[in-house]
Amino acid sequence: MAKNRSAAYLERARCDGRSSRLLAGIGWYRKHFTVDRRYAGQRVFLEFEGANQVAEFWLNGARLGIHNNGYTGFEFDVTAQLRFGEDNVLRRRWTICTTPPFRPP
């Protein structure tokens, strides 16, 4: 990867309408990266070891999907969304709440 930049921020949001001293709310993460053109024509997957709690992903503006449960790994086939040899932007939106229905078991 020739270029690798990232940024993250947490929106000031309340999960249950009440303030909390715990880190909770909606967060965003953005990462720029480049994939070498030599990988064009091959299937490419993004693998995640986990993303707490409810995470939604986009690559270059195309929605990849959503994953619930921060304790399990998952992957997305991003072959169709990748721009080989160019800048790619991965965005993740995640919801972290300590109140039902988001509280882990």
For the sheet with most strands, the description reads: 5 strands, antiparallel
Cα(first) to Cα(last) distance is 38 Å
What is the CATH T-level topology? Jelly Rolls
Question: How many distinct helices?
Answer: 0
- Using the alpha-carbon principal axes, give the shape: elongated
What's the level 1 CATH class?
Mainly Beta
CATH architecture term: Sandwich
CATH superfamily: Galactose-binding domain-like
Oligomer designation: single chain
Strand neighbour order, sheet with most strands: 1-2-7-4-5
Structural class computed from helices and strand pairing = mainly beta
Reading the helices and strands in chain order gives EEEEEEE
Mean of all residue-level pLDDT scores: 78
Please characterize this protein's 3D structure:
- By secondary structure, the chain is mostly beta strands.
- It has one domain (about 5-95): Sandwich (Jelly Rolls).
- The protein contains no helices and 7 strands.
- The strands form 2 sheets. A 5-stranded antiparallel β-sheet has the order 1-2-7-4-5, with no helix packed on it.
- A hairpin with a 2-residue loop joins strand 4 (about 55-60) and strand 5.
How does the SSE layout of this entry go?
Blueprint: E1 4-11, E2 25-34, E3 45-48, E4 54-59, E5 62-68, E6 74-77, E7 87-96
Short structural description:
The chain is mainly beta and 105 residues long. It has no helices and seven strands.
Relevant terms:
105 residues, mainly beta, Jelly Rolls, 5-stranded antiparallel sheet, two-stranded antiparallel sheet, 0% helix, elongated
